[in-house]
Amino acid sequence: MAPVTSENIAMEPEAAASPAAVDDRFLNELVARAQAEGLQLTGEGGLLQQLTKRLLESALEGEMTDHLGYDRHDPAGKNGGNSRNGKRSKTVITDVGPVEIEVPRDREGAFEPQIVKKRQRRLTGVDEMVLSLSAKGLTHGEISAHLAEVYGAEVSKQTISTITDSVMEGMAEWQARPLDCVYPVVFIDCINVKIRDGQVANRPIYVALAVTAEGHRDILGLWAGGEGGEGAKHWLRVLTELKNRGVEDVLMLVCDGLKGLPDAVGEVWPQTVVQTCVVHLLRASFRYAGRQDWDKIAKALKPVYTAPTEDAATSRFLEFCEEWGQKYPAIVRLWENAWAEFVPFLQFDAEIRRIVCTTNAIESVNARIRRAVRARGHFPSENAAMKCVYLAVMSLDPTGAGRKRWTTRWKRALQAFDIAFDGRLTHNRI
């Protein structure tokens, strides 16, 4: 099949009156000719590459005409000062593979093409593919190999690193964006990542996920922690940052026994109820028990966290201590240390309990992040780890299909929150 040119895509005058018909007929003819002559549609030298080349070059010629003010070979441009000055070859990476194009030049060197800018070697779709693959946890080498195998595009690991580094500016803007003035509940959880700093060591990255007053999920930010854990000073800095971004009140904050966090919450939002995640307490309890006793331990603890009142929960816990305290004293000590942050939700009705006694709200987010983190193994730096986690967060529910289901589940709970907290949820939004 002959290369696609302006001559063999010319349209008859009568056909121009019906763009849709012309498009269908033209495309059908191109595909039929390609198949008849054995030309592949995709891959090196395929029809899609030829079309992409021709369309890009036509667009660049159009931009040059706009820049100079006259068409090629138009007498109006004679002795008009600036003029066309040949072309230069350039290869760009596109969704259909590498495409070599001819970029027009002008004598004054003032032409600034837009569809393929100066020094641009990739079209937007390639960047989006790289970011999407990176969000799934693929290493730079794996992304490079994937693009070479599927698209025939040679993209170096350094280029991929440059593409993914470009998200850091967007991450900084996202991390500093204004927030709502009040949230019914904020969940704070930790993801451990492996970072090679001399030797590979676990480092925490903290995720703050809020539920808005409309029932939407909103990730407020990401913060890297140190090797030795964080105290009240660290959490005071994090919560003050959230307050400076507009968060005046949080009704309830759910976490997993993060040291120093309750004290920091008391300083920033004195009315906020700090609640320990019951699911995390149960999981921590199982770590101290033999696997053969897990079901029994779960059954014995259920009356504690489902008790109607704090007094009833205390009675059920004493019964648990009598039955299991001698065999598993570490479980008893775990619950005693967490008791002050465990019991607050017992004063609320079933709708609020159902929400705050578990971290299901954040577990789906963490699952996506952990998949990306595990796929990478370890990271060369803290910035590389934060970049991976951020990309994973940005890839959550991109179509918004889960947003409606999420909002529907929260409607009754939001009403219960507003009643239980004396209208703070709606009053602070007025």
UniProtKB/TrEMBL annotation:
Annotated GO MF terms: DNA binding; transposase activity
Disordered: region residues: 67-89
Organism expressing this protein natively: Streptomyces roseus
Pfam family, one: Transposase_mut
The family this protein is said to belong to: Belongs to the transposase mutator family.
GO biological process, one term: DNA transposition
Name listed for the protein in its UniProt record: Mutator family transposase
InterPro entries: Transposase_mutator (IPR001207)
Keyword DNA-binding among record annotations: yes
Compositional bias ranges of the Basic and acidic residues kind: 67-76
Family matches, as NCBIfam families: transpos_IS256
Record's keyword terms, sorted: DNA recombination, DNA-binding, Transposable element, Transposition
Chain's role: Required for the transposition of the insertion element.
